[in-house]
Recover the amino acids of this structure.
């Protein structure tokens, strides 16, 4: 397992380009199941999760190959409905083949994802929606076994606006008979990007970016070529890097339309920004304390909570961070405290008492965004920080240490 060594504190300068979005790429790759023709995706980040998704596609009989940031997928050879535990346990997003498999084969045999470091994360809403469309679903030996004679349009109401649940049901509905209405749908930009792709493939979908989405099933979809949106969470993470190191950097290829809530918080905690032709110049100064409450889009994203917590650990005063999406997304707190932060958790709230300085130590990455928060803290911490288990970071950030090195950070990957 690789680790990072970081020497701080660092000042950053220069410019950095944001990669394609992980959470937009993953459902788009599984959307290839919906057609026999080629799907060509540009701006796909080179990440472990994308590799795992490609392996899953190959397991299903599809072809999936990468050339630089372009992925070519062809599912004319689709011959399996089986997503084994070995792949699903590596990446929960494997559940994204559920909707497409039901649409194409009327059959799916997928390992239940199980919990993960950030919470229990059930998929009951995905299953109930497939049932309402005519699927017969059983759970056997840890697997979802789902069959349908016909998949019919239906009205689906989500108790919680689930992101991958919404994506799964949209992908099931595009080839189902008749009209599907999804109420309380997730409105995240990655869902909207998937809808745009599906429309280019010939799907009939209305309501993108709204909480009611209507889909009229069609007989078949065609292949297409599509450029994945830039990653809004990587953008936010780089903004936090400027904040915590009190630096000025230019961030290019920013999905500006999708980062309002992040930009708002960035300014609230003392950041300054100007828009440029290619993106945004951000500048970090004195860090001010604030209140953060995570929420579904367009609220403040749970995927940015850990990174802002690292920043707030050095604020001039006390901040409150409330996590409302996942029940256990404070695993980074204990590790930030090892670096000298003063954070106390009570239920789903964390009280972050700003400290004068962080001091390097050995810390352990526990999940993807927690790893990013540790890298940020390490950039500001005095002395050497060793971050273990950075395979979590590799799942969702494309060569982050190389990008930070080009900005002037002292960060090294140690292969183990
Ligand atoms: N939920 C249920 N039942 C379900 C589905 C969800 O109770 O059937 C609950 C979850 O347990 C959670 C809430 O609903 O409490 C929202 O979960 P959601 O389903 O929206 O999350 P997800 O689709 O599994 C995606 C992202 C996550 C991101 C969340 C929230 C992908 C591949 N993953 O997960 O990304 O945190 O939405 O925005 O799109 C990450 O990139 O680090 C990451 C974890």
């Amino acid at each position: 397992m690789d680790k990072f060594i970081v020497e701080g504190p660092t000042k950053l300068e220069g410019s950095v380009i944001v990669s394609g979005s992980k959470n937009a790429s993953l459902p788009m790759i599984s959307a290839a199941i919906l057609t026999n023709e080629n799907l060509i995706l540009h701006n796909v980040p080179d990440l472990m999760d994308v590799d795992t998704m490609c392996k899953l596609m190959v397991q299903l009989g599809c072809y999936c190959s990468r050339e630089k940031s372009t992925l070519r997928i062809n599912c004319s050879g689709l011959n399996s409905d089986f997503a084994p535990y070995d792949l699903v346990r590596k990446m929960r997003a494997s559940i994204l083949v559920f909707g497409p498999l039901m649409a194409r084969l009327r059959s799916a045999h997928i390992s239940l994802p199980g919990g993960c470091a950030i919470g229990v994360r059930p998929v009951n809403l995905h299953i109930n929606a497939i049932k309402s469309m005519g699927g017969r679903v059983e759970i056997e030996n840890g697997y979802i076994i789902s069959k349908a004679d016909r998949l019919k349009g239906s009205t689906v109401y989500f108790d919680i606006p689930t992101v991958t649940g919404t994506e799964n049901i949209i992908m099931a509905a595009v080839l189902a008979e008749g009209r599907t209405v999804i109420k309380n749908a997730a409105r995240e930009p990655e869902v909207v990007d998937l809808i745009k792709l599906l429309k280019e493939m010939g799907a009939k979908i209305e309501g993108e970016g709204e909480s009611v989405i209507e889909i009229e099933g069609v007989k078949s979809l065609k292949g297409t070529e599509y450029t994945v949106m830039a990653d809004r969470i990587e953008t936010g993470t780089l903004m936090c890097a400027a904040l915590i190191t009190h630096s000025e950097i230019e961030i290019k290829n920013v999905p500006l339309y999708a980062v309002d809530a992040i930009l708002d918080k960035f300014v609230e905690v003392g950041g300054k920004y100007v828009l440029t032709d290619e993106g945004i110049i951000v500048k970090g100064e004195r860090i001010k304390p604030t209140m953060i409450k995570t929420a579904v889009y367009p609220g403040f994203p749970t995927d940015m909570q850990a990174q802002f917590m690292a920043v707030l650990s050095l604020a001039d005063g006390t901040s409150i961070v409330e996590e409302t999406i996942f029940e256990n997304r404070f695993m980074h707190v204990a590790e930030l405290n090892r670096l000298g932060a003063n954070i106390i958790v009570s239920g789903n709230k964390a009280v972050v008492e700003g400290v004068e300085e962080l001091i390097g130590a050995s810390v352990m990455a526990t999940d993807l965004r927690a790893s990013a928060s540790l890298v940020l803290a390490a950039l500001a911490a005095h002395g050497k920080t060793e971050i273990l288990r950075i395979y979590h970071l590799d799942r969702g950030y494309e060569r982050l240490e190389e990008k930070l090195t080009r900005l002037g950070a002292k960060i090294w990957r140690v292969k183990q």
